[in-house]
């Protein structure tokens, strides 16, 4: 009924204001300046690109983790030159963005020297979207693949009832001709980015059929779920958000998505020496209510296409012909085009968030 339609009061913000309230809230919660700059960049660019689920919505979770000691805000990541092609970063139980930035330059130079390298991060808390790291590496003219595990929410399919996997995202970044170089952290407003015709090709997706945040929004708003995204405690299909959160989410694409979730789990946690998602979940409550970030790992693979293509001139132009072929058909777009379109628009129009969310973040900054 119309009675159910609560009109939420909104607050309009410029991106400078987004950056400022984010910075204040994180600093006031005890996060050191370097990490604050990195996380603020991830949050501000998410708002800029229209990725609401990883924008200001996440701030209270970040701050809660700092305030309750899940994350130590004073920690600085430790970078180790582990092998000619391997950089290992101990994030020290801190957030992933500063750990990525700490190891990034060494991993880039190793990829250029050896053609390929990997950045292996352990003991980190990833609570952000993955396109942030792969897009920035693709702007260095490198191909990048990133894998992250989380707290277990997703059942192995077919046959599994228990939560085993995280929502286990992976992301892919591929350089394109005529993109601008990566701006420094905090330079989200870099004019070169909004003027370029297109950014690198990027996709970034969870291996769950539906994002956990979306299930929580359905629960809040009293909506039922689509079929095929979750099972209840007994392993029966359910469209009830409550039953789904108490039961388990399903991977996308049946056994194929399940295999990808398994691969991400092994690459992000097994290979980096981090907690598996089910281990991270053991200390959480069973109602599905625990939303705080968990301690896990991330693996990033960097490939230098100049080396793999034998220095062949024009490999980027060759790849452009594939994109053209795809885009010739009506109704198609490349992944990341939605974000790049928002990126051109948001600096002019600003963003809106619920007033209650704005008040909450400002209060965290005043504390
Ligand atoms: P979506 O299903 O919304 O999008 C997945 C990808 O598909 C995006 O790259 C998107 O590009 C692209 N895409 C969507 N629609 C189209 C289309 N019509 N044509 C071409 N490409 C399209 O993402 P998910 O819900 O799976 O994941 C959301 C975010 O959650 C990700 O950023 C992920 O990193 C993050 N995440 C983080 C976790 C963590 O622990 N840190 C855990 C799980 C998820 P575009 O953006 O341009 O629409």
UniProtKB/TrEMBL annotation:
GO terms for molecular function: oxidoreductase activity. SUPFAM superfamilies: L-sulfolactate dehydrogenase-like. Belongs to the LDH2/MDH2 oxidoreductase family. This is Putative malate dehydrogenase. The keyword Oxidoreductase applies. InterPro entries: Mal/L-sulf/L-lact_DH-like_ah, Mal/L-sulf/L-lact_DH-like_NADP, Mal/L-sulfo/L-lacto_DH-like_sf, Malate/L-lactate_DH-like. Keywords: Oxidoreductase. It comes from the Eukaryota.
């Amino acid at each position: 009924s119309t009675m159910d339609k609560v009109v939420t009061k909104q607050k309009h913000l410029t991106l400078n204001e987004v950056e400022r309230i984010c910075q204040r809230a994180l600093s006031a919660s005890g996060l050191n300046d370097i990490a604050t700059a990195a996380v603020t960049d991830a949050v501000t660019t998410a708002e800029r690109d229209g990725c609401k689920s990883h924008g200001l919505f996440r701030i209270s979770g970040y701050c809660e983790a700092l305030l309750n000691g899940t994350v130590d805000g004073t920690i600085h990541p430790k970078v180790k030159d582990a092998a000619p092609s391997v950089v290992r970063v101990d994030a020290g139980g801190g957030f992933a963005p500063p750990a990525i930035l700490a190891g990034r330059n060494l991993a880039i130079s190793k990829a250029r020297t050896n053609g390929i390298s990997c950045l292996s991060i352990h003991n980190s808390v990833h609570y952000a979207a993955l396109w942030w790291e792969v897009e920035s590496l693709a702007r260095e003219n490198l191909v990048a693949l990133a894998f992250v595990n989380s707290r277990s929410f997703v059942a192995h399919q077919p046959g599994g009832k228990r939560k085993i996997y995280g929502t286990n995202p992976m992301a892919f970044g591929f350089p394109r001709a005529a993109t601008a170089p990566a701006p420094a952290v905090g330079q989200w407003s870099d004019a070169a980015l909004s003027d370029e015709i297109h950014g690198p090709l990027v996709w970034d997706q969870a291996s769950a059929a539906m994002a956990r945040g979306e299930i929580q929004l359905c629960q809040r708003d009293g909506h039922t779920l689509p079929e095929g995204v979750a099972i209840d405690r007994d392993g029966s299909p359910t469209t009830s958000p409550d039953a789904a959160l108490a039961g388990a989410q399903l991977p996308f694409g049946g056994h194929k998505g399940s295999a990808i979730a398994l691969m991400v789990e092994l690459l992000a946690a097994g290979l980096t020496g981090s907690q598996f998602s089910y281990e991270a979940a053991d200390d959480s409550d069973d109602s599905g209510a625990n939303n705080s970030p968990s301690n896990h790992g991330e693996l990033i693979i960097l490939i230098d296409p100049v080396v793999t293509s034998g220095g062949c001139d024009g490999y980027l132009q060759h790849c452009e012909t594939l994109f053209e072929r795809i885009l010739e058909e009506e109704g198609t777009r490349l992944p990341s085009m939605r974000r790049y379109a928002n990126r051109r628009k948001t600096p002019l129009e600003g963003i809106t968030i619920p007033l209650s969310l704005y008040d909450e973040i400002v209060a965290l900054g005043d504390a």
